[in-house]
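Hi everyone,

Forwarding the result from last night's run.
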Amino acid sequence: MIFHLSIAARDPRHVASVIAELWGGEALPFPPVAQGSWVAMAGDERGTTMEVYPAGAELRPAEGDADATAAMNPSPARHVATHAAIASPLSAEAVQAIAAREGWLSKYRKRGGVFGVIEFWLENAVMLEVLTPEMQQEYTGFMSPDAWRAMLAAGPPGAAAAG
């Protein structure tokens, strides 16, 4: 179970506010690690949060009995592999409207022909996969070790259609 995930953004406060809106939650300052960080809190029973650090913040281990620290990279990558699939109570139309309001790319995709997601590109750089209630049912109906093994045994996605 993931309780929180950390990402970086050029405008952490704004990005955390949009994520909180997708969840129906709240965004608050998050000063413990990197100055200027914000956190989006879902307000759910699990304490689900997404920490949003300033672009360029890199977490590094500290010496001895101390917490990790953040150092700033003056030339951070704009696009990263790190992303998250998040549940939202909103409809696909509402999610897409938020992206359009922000000027951020979003599009519906069917992953492996099995479950839908909305690729929601924070600041047009960091991807969230937003799942509406219907998409969440597709996801949880498929995402299990047994279903994954069956998919792997069938070959790569699209292999049956090509063969």
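The chain is about 30% helix and 30% strand.

Cheers,
N.
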